[in-house]
Amino acid sequence: MIPTATALAAIAARLAEAGIEEPRREARLILAATQGVSAAGLLLLEAVDPQRFEPLVARREAREPLAYILGRKEFWGLDFAVSPATLIPRPDTETLVEAVLALGITPARVLDLGTGTGCLLLAVLSEFPAAFGVGVDISPAAAALAAGNAKTLGLANRAAFCAGDWGAALNGTFDLVLSNPPYIPGADIAALMPEVARFEPASALDGGAEGLDAYRRIIAALPRLLGAEGAAVLELGVGQATLVTALAQQAGFNATTRADLGGVPRAIILTRCK
Ligand SMILES: C[S@@+](CC[C@H](N)C(=O)[O-])C[C@H]1O[C@@H](n2cnc3c(N)ncnc32)[C@H](O)[C@@H]1O
After folding, report:
1. What's the predicted TM-score (pTM) here?
2. Alpha carbon nearest to ligand 1 atom 10, residue
3. Enclosing domain of residue 240
4. Is residue 29 in some structural domain?
5. Which of 180, 223, 187 is nearest to 88 (CA)?
6. Which among 25, 73, 119, 241 is least surrounded, fewest beta carbons within 10 Å?
7. Are residues 177 and 243 in the same domain?
């Protein structure tokens, strides 16, 4: 055992050396998780066991994302299990939940294409207690992860998850279609931070040559999947608002955008042109 303060300082120094942006905060989170206490509880621990934290610190030094190491990530105030099968939920994606709430509708049937952890669908279901949702992902492991999250969050009776290629296997229409598709141009992925480029799956990131492949597929499916009064809310990558708006308008949709906290148009809201 070593004194907690000594361990904290040593871990933070190693993480800083590895280029981690918030080394002390992450050191605290790793220590707390491995000693089985909360971050506040760590203050009361006089000594910690290095054997427990060492393997996790080594993984983080190698730039594996903290969320994969701890296996959890918060989104919209809800706790999600995460795994390398899919993207780690991002705060920017909460802009889509805000956009849904701003629509002023009460959706009964919600579809989430590329559901990943299920974070978007489950956050929206948590806001609409009478809604039922379907989440689809090309990765069976992601669909299973999302189903587990629905169960943990007490939403399993209102959510179904399946593996599939966007909406290809689905029949029927939805009041709300959500998607945070892969939208990074393929050639840009290698230059992203190591946590993303080396650890998050290409299937969750790679949007093809211009980053627009998934939008083309999803927008083409919307006329069939969206009810007459329905709305689709899709996440946008930086600088994609104009191009995705053009794709949506060509397909017969009105498009508006909503900015994230950084002022970037992050969500595009599509409704049928009347
Ligand atoms: C950017 S991630 C978003 C995950 C989650 N919705 C979120 O917001 O954190 C994109 C997701 O789309 C899934 N995906 C990629 N291609 C797909 C396809 N053809 N059909 C269905 N899902 C697909 C990926 O496996 C990944 O989970």
Report:
1. 0.95
2. 204
3. 81-272
4. yes
5. 180
6. 25
7. yes
